[in-house]
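User: For my dataset I need records formatted as: sequence, then structure tokens, nothing else. Please produce one.
Assistant:
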Amino acid sequence: MKQRKRGRKRLGKMKRYHNVMLRFNDTEYERLGKICESYNLDISERGTISPLLRRLVLQSESEEKDMLPDTSNLAYHINKIGNNINQLVKIAHHKNLKSPNSSLQNEIKKANELLYSLIEITMEEKPA
């Protein structure tokens, strides 16, 4: 009598070494449950979701429009812009130009002083 092998069949060269972990919120998990139901699978049963997701992901063709853009170059340029801004601020503080409109502020200050002096003159001329 030949003895049957039990347990999971050996993968050999097809052994999987890389893990990917997914987390779902409540609504996503409900959608996953509906997908499992459409394939007549029980989501609570251990070992049913991994083969389903593997099959769905690996059998689907990816299109160029679905590919994400390379963000490393974008991050590099954003960092360079931030560096340039920091250099400009440092120069402005060094030259004591805290505001690009400092001459305008001086003009406003002079106008306020003139208005104040006009108010004082008009207050002196009023008879008591």
